[in-house]
Amino acid sequence: xxxxxxxxxxxxxxxxxxxxxxxxxxxxxxxxxxxxxxxxxxxxxxxxxxxxxxxxxxxxxxxxxxxxxxxxxxxxxxxxxxxxxxxxxxxxxxxxxxxxxxxxxxxxxxxxxxxxxxxxxxxxxxxxxxxxxxxxxxxxxxxxxxxxxxxxxxxxxxxxxxxxxxxxxxxxxxxxxxxxxxxxxxxxxxxxxxxxxxxxxxxxxxxxxxxxxxxxxxxxxxxxxxxxxxxxxxxxxxxxx
Length: 241
What we know:
Layout: H1 3-11, H2 17-40, H3 47-70, H4 79-93, E1 97-99, E2 102-104, H5 106-123, H6 127-154, E3 156-165, H7 168-182, E4 185-194, E5 197-207, H8 211-223, E6 228-235, E7 238-240
Antiparallel strand pairs: 1-2, 3-5, 3-6, 4-5, 6-7
């Protein structure tokens, strides 16, 4: 096999080398900019993860197109890309973190999936779709996050709870069930042992409509159980027992 044959059969394929590099560069740029935003906000999937997802999706798209063109195949050139969209969901699932009754990382998982789709667009040479999609994704992750925080801040309340108990497993189960029933976000939960039992502290975040009513319901569920000896909470610098 001569060098000319190797060049024509395996290297100088459609799309050409310049087009391939341009598409890969576009995918890398898309993944880099979105990954930087996730990196700066300290999310589970950051810069390199988003770049690799975009590049991998781009390569899959290129392979599908080149197989279809070079081998005159009747197969669907988008078949590989479709598998990427499905498979990247498993990677996104790895960004989920469960804290009590709460699940974090959904936005980062969605950004990983979106980057894969943008990488596919770049791989097929749809640069306008890739760049426009990147811009709107960044707008969603930045501007809408600030708007969401503002809206939540205007319809939210946060309390610091202190519970004394002698049965930590039962108390933790009660807290989780009460939080799920009252739609409360629990974080910074800690349990420390003391001479007369255990001391459990946590922060509760009440968001959305009727948060005052749900605060009362949550407190009532805690004090009504026999495994809880004492409950106190602090809200707006006012302590209540």
